[in-house]
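Appendix C: a fully annotated inverse folding record. The material below is reproduced so that readers can follow the format used throughout the book. The structure is listed first as tokens, followed by the designed sequence.
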């Protein structure tokens, strides 16, 4: 690419997304393009396959593939390039695969479209490609639909589709951003093997600098549509010259646990905030959040949340419809969460983390076990008592794009919990919404906008503010930053820590990313196969893990080898 310029035309003119990009991808090597949301990296990737979104247009510059100019190609010419000479692995397999077609048929379609297999040959060849991509039992998986596969399996299907025609250039647009570290490592190992064995050039679009450190030979750093730094990956990461690159590196999570806070009520860190329960429901939420500890005031050391023997099994139908089996998703889980404490719950997909969270919130039936919130068993209360408990424990979802109603304004989103619980009145709701926005560091005026008009980081701040509207004591944060770029991720983590220190919140922080968990957790519990296999203080667990699975998770964290030597045996 030489001097590439990409713009998006709209009612108010053309927005320049990429301005004068120079980039070279070399055969047999991985070139990483890094930057936060809005930097232009995904627009660059989509321009390389002629798939810019509506309104997107190449305004200038040159893109040459093996000497052939690609800018200005018509759709028919692009069909000869796209898929056959340039392969694209998109970010989200949930929306990139046809939900009503078996995955094997989707791989076979690529072979038929490019004349690489006959209708009879294509299904067999598709199974071979799924096997190459590392999909277990590929013949059976080929007959399944996308919703029947895990996230990692669906991503392997996309890899099989992208590599089916043996393209000379492979573009991977955030291919592992939402995956567990163990699955991430397996997929990146496979992609690296493809590059090494076939001589394919790979353009890796990512915000994960740890992945870049592990995998890329060259790196291009983008900010606001421009390249601010480029060069060999080892040099750029070890000796960044541009302030923006240095900021990205500073924001990247590490496996260094934050120091534990003083819980005595007399140290430098804020003491936990006692529960504020008033007879006036109008003032209840504000009273809880406005409460401040009195210096020297004794603080209760009793755990706020006690989970004991939590179990949940789901029915699974076998090949014979009349034969029912069960899958135990959560098996005897127990832990405690202190006041103003953060417990990190870590594990791969299917480990039972989210099912555990849903049972704690009263959103999933409990087969056995107890969940005591300040002495009250969440699993047994019903009706008005359950509604009252919901005011004390709230959930922050993973995806801010899906968890907020796009038809509501921000003010309506923030005041809906108050309306549902009949707290306050219309004259107070507007002021409460603005106060909540101020609490999560969003500017005045945002309350009049809709969620669709906000960035990912702004949406997650709104989601956190909404969770705080009822004045809870416990926030269950289910992968709250996994969908965000590293810089935005760092700001959200800082926000959560600040809110905890101001309001004495307790967090159950669920994540598959140990490096993220280490930034916010006082203690960590590791889940596998529905059970907690290891738990302990964050610093101790990260420094000297005892269970083989914990060591496996630590070994799989990208960029680890470049920064620290964690024992793995």
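Designed amino acids, in order:
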């Amino acid at each position: 690419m030489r001097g590439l310029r990409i713009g998006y035309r709209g009612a108010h003119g053309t927005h320049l997304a990429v301005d004068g990009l120079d980039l070279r991808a070399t055969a047999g090597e991985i070139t990483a393009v890094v930057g936060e949301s809005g930097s232009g990296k995904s627009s660059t990737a989509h321009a390389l396959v002629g798939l810019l979104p509506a309104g997107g247009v190449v305004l200038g510059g040159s893109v040459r593939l093996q000497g052939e100019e690609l800018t200005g190609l018509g759709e028919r010419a692009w069909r000869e390039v796209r898929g056959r000479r340039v392969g694209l692995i998109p970010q989200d397999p949930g929306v990139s695969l046809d939900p009503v077609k078996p995955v094997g048929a989707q791989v076979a379609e690529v072979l038929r479209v490019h004349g690489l297999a006959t209708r009879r040959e294509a299904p067999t060849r598709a199974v071979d490609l799924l096997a190459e991509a590392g999909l277990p039992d590929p013949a059976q998986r080929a007959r399944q639909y996308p919703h029947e596969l895990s996230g990692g399996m669906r991503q392997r299907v996309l890899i099989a589709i992208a590599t089916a025609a043996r393209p000379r250039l492979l573009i991977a647009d955030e291919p592992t951003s939402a995956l567990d570290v163990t699955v991430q490592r397996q997929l990146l190992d496979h992609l690296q093997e493809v590059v090494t064995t076939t001589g394919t050039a790979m353009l890796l679009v990512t915000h994960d600098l740890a992945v870049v450190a592990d995998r890329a030979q060259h790196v291009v750093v983008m900010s606001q549509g421009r390249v601010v730094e480029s060069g060999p990956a080892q040099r750029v990461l070890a000796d960044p010259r541009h302030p923006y690159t240095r900021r990205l590196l500073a924001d990247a999570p590490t496996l260094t646990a934050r120091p534990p806070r003083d819980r005595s009520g007399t140290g430098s860190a804020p003491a936990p905030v006692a529960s504020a329960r008033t007879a006036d429901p109008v003032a209840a939420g504000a009273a809880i959040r406005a409460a401040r500890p009195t210096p020297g005031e004794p603080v209760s050391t009793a755990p706020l949340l006690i989970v004991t023997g939590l179990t949940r099994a789901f029915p699974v139908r076998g090949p014979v419809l009349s034969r029912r089996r069960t899958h135990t998703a959560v098996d005897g889980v127990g832990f405690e969460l202190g006041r103003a404490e953060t417990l990190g719950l870590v594990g791969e997909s299917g480990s039972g983390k989210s099912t555990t969270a849903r049972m704690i919130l009263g959103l999933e039936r409990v087969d056995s076990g107890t969940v005591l919130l300040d002495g009250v068993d969440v699993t047994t209360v019903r009706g008005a008592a359950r509604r009252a408990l919901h005011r004390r424990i709230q959930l922050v979802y993973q995806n801010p794009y899906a968890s907020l109603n796009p038809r509501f304004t921000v003010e309506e989103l923030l005041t809906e919990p108050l309306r549902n619980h009949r707290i306050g009145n219309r004259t107070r709701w507007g002021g409460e919404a603005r106060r909540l926005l101020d609490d999560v560091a969003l500017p005045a005026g945002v309350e009049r906008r809709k969620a669709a008009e906000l960035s990912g980081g702004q949406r997650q701040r709104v989601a956190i503010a909404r969770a705080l509207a009822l004045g809870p004591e416990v926030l269950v944060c289910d992968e709250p930053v996994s969908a965000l770029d590293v810089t935005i991720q760092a700001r959200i983590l800082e926000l959560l820590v600040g809110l905890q220190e101001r309001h004495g919140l307790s967090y159950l922080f669920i994540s598959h990313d140990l490096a993220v968990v280490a930034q916010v957790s006082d203690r960590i519990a590791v889940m596998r196969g529905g059970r907690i296999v290891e738990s302990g203080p964050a610093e101790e667990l990260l420094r000297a893990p005892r269970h083989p699975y914990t060591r496996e998770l630590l070994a799989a964290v990208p960029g680890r080898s470049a920064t620290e030597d964690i024992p793995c045996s």
